[in-house]
Amino acid sequence: MRILFAALAAFATVAHPVQADTSAAAVPSGDALVELVLGKHVRPENGSKGQVASFYEGGVFKQRTPGGDVRELSWRVEGSQICLANGDQGECFQVISTGDDHITLKALAGKRKENTQKMLFVNEQGIPQG
Fold first, then answer.
1. Helix (H) or strand (E) holding 93
2. Are 53 and 43 contacting, i.e. CB atoms less than 8 angstroms apart?
3. Considering only CA atoms, which of 100, 126, 110 is closest in space to residue 10?
4. With 80 as the cut, is the pLDDT of residue 25 above it?
5. Per-residue confidence at 19, pLDDT binned at 50, 70, 90?
6. Residue 85 in contact with residue 1, Cβ under 8 Å?
7. Which residues contact 118 (CB under 8 A, 6 or more apart)?
8. Residues 116, 20: contact at Cβ < 8 Å?
9. Are 104 and 98 contacting, i.e. CB atoms less than 8 angstroms apart?
């Protein structure tokens, strides 16, 4: 399980409670959520440019660390949650808001339970889009 948590650093970098943007449009779910993230790159709002996670076709999720290492996991959408897995170990994150430039996620279990993380949509180099 530790390996999975380390690999999820792009989603939970020392997760800090943040104020959710409640003015955002309705949270997408199912196919609409897949469409929102598929082919996109994200990084934590407070993360470095080199820390980028990407959602690819076929449920492939790749996380690049600032040092250039790449970890590969799988991803899927369950309702309004994004779930990541490494083999039989996984974790789901509730989408609590979205915008043109971000998606905000809330951890649902473990030490980070209830912590939220705003993820910026970025290009492959980690530069914010929009």
1. strand 89-98
2. yes
3. 126
4. no
5. very low
6. no
7. 18, 21, 44, 45, 102, 103, 104
8. yes
9. yes
Question: How far are the Cα atoms of 2, 54, 93 from residue 107, in angstroms, in the given order?
Answer: 16, 18, 5
| Coil, strand or helix at 118 | strand
Torsion of CA 17, 62, 50, 129, to 10 degrees: -70
- 28, burial (CB in 10 Å: exposed 0-12, middle 13-18, buried 19+): middle
pLDDT band for 11, please (50, 70, 90 cuts).
low
C-beta of residue 69 within 8 angstroms of C-beta of residue 78: no
Instruction: Take residue 90 and report the two structure tokens written for it.
Output: 């996984």
The answer to whether residues 106 and 118 touch, using CB atoms and an 8 Å cutoff, is no
d(CA 17, CA 77): 23
Please tell me the distance from the alpha carbon of residue 45 to that of residue 17, in angstroms, as a whole number: 12
With CA atoms as reference, report the closest residue to 10 among 103, 111, 110, 78. Answer: 103
pTM score = 0.80
